[in-house]
């Protein structure tokens, strides 16, 4: 074969923890490959393709097997089963394992679950899709199996089998029709099996059973033990069933074995009685189907005081933790939600593995359809999360120090409890309440002339109550809190809270009463405070110092870090004022006890400052309406950019200069965040005038939309990672945009509250989150990231299109999740170092993406549903990576926007359309209503319609530009009726009038159909074109819904003539959905050859060599050879493309995308990528 698999990023369908020589490894099934990762370092240690044409569906570990020849790891997928010994694992880690020599076997039916035996070291039990039970046993290098008795052959969707005891096998089978069959089988000491016995048949679910799981043994108060069963279903419910066997319940259980109705929602009254008798708890969970459930923990305490944790995994790509509260005195239990873990993209968590560290602490690994593997830690819900305590031990802490060190801590206090911890020393601000009516209201009675009067019927005046107001961090683990009565409280976060009060100088004691704003400078251990009278105070060395005053009531204060000067400055704005005051280097002035200098900047009209920053010594301000103002001189006008330049009219919340972002002495970059869920990066062009920096132009080069939001409040860099924080619904979220992973989240009630956040050093972005909720102070502290990414993933949905940049450095993918990702294939030589590295995620489409195409390496174009067509400008940004900004979008959308742009093509516009020497793009769009529109596009003038046409009622699926000959554009299209159509468009020169405002021709020419050739029986799904070396022949390859591969030859001398067609029927066993072509060196002007790589829904990657030669008498002679045919783990293949990787050898690769991505090697000599088309 001339093609071979090079790298796979596929859904992770199996996971298992494995202890090896004192280290914890994580075994993952990804497609047909078994990959081995180190659980702590996340390094990929090895990988091996265990099955040739079958994905791995499960991995079972038998740690009780200790000898080298005993089966320690059991892997299965479909009907295939492999038993791996410890020696096999060593060989896999040493890269010396030979899969053909492994102990493997084919079982007669689809395997659903496997149970290893602790007493028979090289055997295991298998439950299959028809409720059959098998026992597989390894002897030497061979594996045999035998069929064991089972009570019925029901059609299953799930199963769980365990060795309940060495002599008893317990099976739970979830059926297609919503029933759960629990049965057992007794095994004698000699290995003989009695007849299988049905114990229970549970009904109640209103959908197919997708997951069942036995609990570990539960100890009962009568020294007996029992188990529970958890199930999940298509109806989105989780149910817990009682499996205890007692005489009273057994009477009802026998009734369920009588003849009854089948299907969902049985109305039989007897069945309902049994359900209510056995079903302990039911809860609705997840936003869609639930694929699996697991119990956590080992031997539990008696059910009289028992809390059991269950985790569930769903189509909504979340893991949810549940707490089951059992009471032995009642026949029911409560199942309550504990926490949701959302660490995957797209849809589906397909696999999970749990490892118990102690009675309360578990490691959980999950693998999703996005190909991502994450590990996170769970704590049993009866052990509360870590909490803080004051010096008076008012709050409890974790029972285990190891848990306390890794789990978040949460504490809450009202103001009274905080103030009670303060030492009483002299009068406070509250002592100055001198309102006589307020004092009168404090007493229920009024004394007058020695007579007691009845309380007044008039409602007394409400007593003013102090409360928390604002927060600001003065160090990473220290913050100040102001109150409504003007108190300033300093709180230091540690294992306990250290609380003290900062006193104002006596004349200014009430300056912060009722109104205060604060700004923390934890980097220099300072904070600044201001009240309604405009006085500005600095908190430094545990004291408050007045540093200045502004004219008017302060509106807000902003921290500015001047990177070049390595100093911090303070910007203060006032309500209804048009001046912003910048205090210069206040920290140095305060410490040296000298007056703080300041500069006043005049703001543009209707400009409410919401953020500020420094870029190349230029002051950059962001406004509430999303506009920017850039200052070089406080006395001069600002370079004012309206909102549509930045984030479409929403408030800019932070401004940050990118590290190492100075591309040249004339250009730099800064980043902004906004409250519409978008962060942006701007390029700032500047010049020098009298040794002063002057801004000349500012424009966006990147817009990003992280999955949390819509309120992004701040941004910073942690090493080289871009960190964002903000609010999503009721949660505060810290997000690593570089790795596309969540760092922490805390449920706080939403964004409308006072809060402050401080990221800890070397904690991956984790830190202290301080906020007010229901008038109480909350502190949420997390010392490490919420989870660890073992392996990065991708879309998590079906990828419909891919495209390679012309310089071969990047490729883009677009999927049904409406996102576009830009990738780079990393190939450092070793198999373990290869990866698809995601450089950027683009979210602008609102419907599934249909087609992607690069123009050079600076433009990426995309189309999809809702008549969406975007042109993306791509730029490399120093200190950041790839910047992507939407430069233009389709101008001619209909009112209903109910069409899809199925395909498009982009080429360089001919000179007659370029106009004034400006480079222009020629773009043709194919719509689902068979309409074709052709435009020219330039950045300055936008789109210009130069032609349109319409086919029939068939949907157009493919469109390609053939060539421009004598001011005529020739276009090739494919459609759902299986026809290839050649079109001609007369090109009309563009107007050169500079004053022309209308960019559209009043009546653009119509496309003329030149020829139509019936090529396929129905839809043409993919196509590729190539020109012969002498450019006299146009070679077109198409793949269709009819499983056929067609080859059409057009003469460039008479392109309107009908093509010569060659059809290879049944080229694939299913629809061909992707192909690409690669030209080979030609030995003669009268002959040419090229390779075609095809793939489709049959999960095969095939390579074909097409050779064409022209004989004087016989005409065209075509030879077609199939030179490669391999299985791919990518299901639902959407597209195929050819690229050259970045390895020193520069090997040619094929990219196959669908439900996952794969890179394939092409073994060939001197292939021409320049002539390849896909």
From TrEMBL:
The keyword tRNA processing applies. One of its GO terms (biological process) is tRNA methylation. WD repeats lie at residues 202-251, 792-833. It comes from the Eukaryota. InterPro entries: Quinoprotein_ADH-like_sf, tRNA_Anticodon_Mtase-Reg, WD40/YVTN_repeat-like_dom_sf, WD40_repeat_CS, WD40_repeat_dom_sf, WD40_rpt. GO terms for cellular component: cytoplasm. The keyword DNA-binding does not apply. Gene3D superfamilies: YVTN repeat-like/Quinoprotein amine dehydrogenase (2.130.10.10). It is found in: Cytoplasm. Keywords: Cytoplasm, Repeat, tRNA processing, WD repeat. Belongs to the WD repeat WDR6 family. This is WD40 repeat-like protein.
